[in-house]
């Protein structure tokens, strides 16, 4: 039988008191449980460790004192571990590891962190962009404390909160004829070369928005980053369909893009935050709360399209939606 922490605690308490009854009183258990623990420790080491004297209580022999000291060190290390774990759970310190499958996360994550972390803090942020499967793998194997991901492809073991549902929109060069419309249809989009965001979940989702045989023009390009899609669209290579909006109309190429809502009734993609719900650290709970608050608030910082042309924030183009 493996030696338990409880048996070590009963054993060391009894030897410290030199009396089984007094140890039982301190531990608030039956004296027989203390006596059984002593027997268990002796059986585990196959040694006599305690001299029992009916009138004078109990006393450890040399081997017993040695075992007692080692048990006390193990118990002390165990209690220290529990205290450190409690501190980790309650404090805003250490490392917060976030994996994200959200191409426009740079548009909102800094604001989210600002909501609950001071500029100077004991927290180190480790942020990793990954695909939807990698994000979920990382949460399950402990690589990430929390993940931002698309919940349409969620695994049963992942606990998550929905943050926002993002309807698809059409991304266009500013000079494109469709940019003159308040909204565009999938039939109109099908008449133009398409730039497809070629990421897990995303590519099949965008292809599935078209009815079979509806697209008149071929796919002009597949790109696995949102910024490459935006730059290709800005250069006039084609148009695209995306779901979440950055907070700028500029692209890496220097040319601007614009967005229009799609008039068809299309399924959205859902941005969610996944985390361990049963025993989350305080900093993870604060992150989740800050994410919810951010996306519950109205305005362009939600990073989703609306049916109305939105007023531009400072530095934004007035033609953005």
From TrEMBL:
GO molecular function, one term: DNA binding
Pfam families, sorted: HTH_1, LysR_substrate
Protein name (database record): LysR family transcriptional regulator
Domain HTH lysR-type: 3-61
Domain of life: Bacteria
InterPro entries recorded: LysR_HTH_N, LysR_subst-bd, WH-like_DNA-bd_sf, WH_DNA-bd_sf
Keywords on record: DNA-binding, Transcription, Transcription regulation
Family membership: Belongs to the LysR transcriptional regulatory family.
Chain ranges passing through the membrane: none
GO cellular component: protein-DNA complex
């Amino acid at each position: 039988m493996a030696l338990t922490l409880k048996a070590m605690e009963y054993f060391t308490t009894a030897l410290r008191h030199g009396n089984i009854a007094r140890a039982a009183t301190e531990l608030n258990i039956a004296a027989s449980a203390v006596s059984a623990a002593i027997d268990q420790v002796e059986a585990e080491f196959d040694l006599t460790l305690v001299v029992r004297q009916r009138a004078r209580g109990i006393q450890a022999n040399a081997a017993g004192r040695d075992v007692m000291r080692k048990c006390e060190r193990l118990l002390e290390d165990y209690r220290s571990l529990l205290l450190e774990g409690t501190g980790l759970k309650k404090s805003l310190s250490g490392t917060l590891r976030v994996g994200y499958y959200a191409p426009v996360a740079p548009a909102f994550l800094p604001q989210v962190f600002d909501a609950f972390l001071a500029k100077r803090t004991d927290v180190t942020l480790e942020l990793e962009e990954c695909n939807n499967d990698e994000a979920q793998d990382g949460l399950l194997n402990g690589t990430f404390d929390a993940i931002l991901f698309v919940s349409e492809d969620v695994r049963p073991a992942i606990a998550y909160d929905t943050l926002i549902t993002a309807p698809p929109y059409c991304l266009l060069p500013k000079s494109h004829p469709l940019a003159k419309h308040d909204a565009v249809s999938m039939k109109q989009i099908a008449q133009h070369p398409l730039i497809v965001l070629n990421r897990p979940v995303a590519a099949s989702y965008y292809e599935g928005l078209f009815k079979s045989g509806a697209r008149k023009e071929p796919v002009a390009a597949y790109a696995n980053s949102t910024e490459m899609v935006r730059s290709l669209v800005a250069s006039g290579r084609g148009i695209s369909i995306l779901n979440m909006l950055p907070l700028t109309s500029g692209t890496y190429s220097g040319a601007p893009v614009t967005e229009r809502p799609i008039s068809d009734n299309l399924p959205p993609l859902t941005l969610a935050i996944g985390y361990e719900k049963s025993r989350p650290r305080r900093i993870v709970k604060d992150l989740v709360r800050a994410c919810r608050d951010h996306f519950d608030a109205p305005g362009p910082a939600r990073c989703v399209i609306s049916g109305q042309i939105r007023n531009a924030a400072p530095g934004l183009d007035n033609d953005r939606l």
